[in-house]
Design a protein that fits this description.
InterPro entries: NDUFV3
Number of strands: 0
Largest sheet: none
Order of helices and strands: HHHHHH
Shape: elongated
Helix content: 55-70%
Protein name: GD13418
Distance between the termini: 171 Å
């Protein structure tokens, strides 16, 4: 085979064309670029006045540039519903990177000081979630109460129907059972109220019993003193009426004692006569 004399010249040209990268054009593009100039002196905004940018609460508003208005076009095809989903890129200025890094460092230091816990932002989110959960719990409680009330009504209606269908004897037995249950409950309540006091007195030591008795004596003395004060403050007519009542009470007590003694004396000879008969 005859060698091609031009092969040595053609081969390097082809390789160059295959390996060379396409050259970029020096012409300026028609797409608008965001202004990257630094903000003016004293630029300290309190909020980002643009509808297409959602700024998290821990990011400073000074990280974004000044906008001409809330409806300013950020970039070609940039928006939440547009092909380029990161419109915030077109809202930065020349020193935005430094602002964002400084905020990140501050958050990191705060987290280290808190022992590795999240910043207060997440705590706020948790409180909001907790409030929402409380509201849902309240709604569920209301629904449960409504269901329980409906069930109770149905049970009452069923009991009323059963009572209407009962005979007289069955109704009497049912009423007796209800009365017994009510009495048992009342007795249990009384025992529950009275038993703790008795147990306390029984479980007291000698010193505690002495102190308890002293308190009781003091209370009795106070009551007597109060009565004496009331008697001293009475008028003559009130004193006379009070004395008459006291005399009547004393006479009644003496008469009751006499009646009891007479009954005892009347019963003694009968018992003696019965014993003599037995002998």
């Amino acid at each position: 085979m005859s060698k091609n004399p031009l092969r040595s010249f053609i081969q390097p040209v082809i390789l160059r064309r295959l390996c060379d990268k396409p050259k970029l054009s020096n012409k300026p593009s028609n797409t608008p670029r965001p202004p990257k100039d630094p903000p003016d002196e004293g630029y300290k905004p309190t909020s980002v006045d643009h509808n297409g940018i959602d700024v998290p609460p821990f990011v400073r508003p000074s990280s974004f540039r000044q906008f001409s208005g809330p409806d300013e076009k950020l970039g070609p095809g940039a928006g939440k519903a547009l092909p380029y989903k990161n419109p915030t890129y077109f809202g930065y200025h020349r020193f935005s990177f430094m602002e964002l890094t400084s905020t990140a460092v501050e958050l990191r230091d705060e987290r280290r000081l808190d022992g590795g816990l999240q910043a207060a932002i997440e705590a706020d989110e948790e409180t909001e979630c907790g409030e929402a959960q409380l509201e849902t719990m309240k709604k569920l409680e209301g629904e449960c109460d409504a269901i329980l009330s409906n069930q109770a009504k149905k049970i009452q209606q069923a009991e009323e129907k059963c009572l209407q269908e009962m005979s007289e004897e069955e109704l009497k037995e049912w009423c007796k059972k209800k009365e017994e249950d009510i009495k048992k409950k009342e007795q249990e309540k009384k025992e529950a109220n009275s038993s703790p006091k008795e147990k306390k007195i029984q479980d007291m030591s000698e010193e505690e019993l002495k102190a308890w008795c002293q308190k009781k004596e003091e209370d009795i003395k106070k009551k007597e003193q109060e009565k004496e004060k009331k008697i001293q403050d009475m008028s003559e007519e009130e004193l006379k009426a009070w004395c008459q009542k006291k005399e009547e009470d004393i006479k009644k007590k003496e008469q009751q004692k006499k009646d009891e003694e007479t009954k005892a004396c009347a019963e003694k000879p009968k018992c003696e006569g019965d014993e003599n008969k037995k002998d």
